[in-house]
Amino acid sequence: MTHGSCGTLNPKCPCMHDGRCTKYYPKDFNDDTIIGEDGYPQYRRRNNGRVAQKNGHTIDNTSIVPYNVDLLVKYQAHINVEVCNKYTCTKYLFKYMNKGPDMALATVQEVTDSGMPGGQQANPEPPRDEIKSYLQCRYVSAAEACWR
User: Which residues are within 8 A (CB) of 46 and not within 5 positions of it... i.e. 6 or more apart?
Assistant: First the structure.
């Protein structure tokens, strides 16, 4: 996986802000993985002279996104693997993992001649029993339904 062509190659790239890449690409070459002065790891990036051509641009190890081959093969997806050293990252990770699909609260009620559920009058509101009326439902939008 490579980071998109940004910097002088593409100054209008979405990751560019004030003439710099917000993801700090291209990274520097390093012989070893070290912890930088800012506390973030600087991963080993070998300068072995290997380059590739992508969309007419030369790509070397400075533009490669950190990855784990085992995770790429297992999940068949693009997975960026980097060390996070802030507590907010852990909070976000578990919030994201436990989020689940889109949900909706739904109830099934009989509609009578008056047009109100259960023959109710328009003004009085009966006590609400949320436990009795709760159904756990997954919401699938029209776009999701077409995609599946």
Answer: 29, 31, 61
Say how many C-beta atoms besides its own lie within 10 A of residue 102's C-beta.
11
pLDDT digits (tens, 9 = 90+) for 51-100: 988 878 888 888 888 888 898 888 888 788 877 666 666 666 666 666 66
Helix or strand or coil: residue 130?
A: helix
Q: Return the structure tokens found at 68.
A: 């784990």
Task: Please report where in the chains the tokens 């641009």 appear, as a residue.
Answer: 57
Pull the structure tokens for residue 61. Answer: 């190890």
Name which of 142, 140, 146, 52 is nearest 101 in CA terms. Answer: 140
Contact predicate 3/63, CB 8 Å: yes
Q: Does residue 60 contact residue 51 with C-beta atoms inside 8 Å? A: yes
CB 103, CB 139: distance < 8 Å: yes
Peptide bond into 66 cis (omega under 30): no
CA 81/CA 58 separation, integer angstroms? 24
End-to-end CA distance of the chain: 27
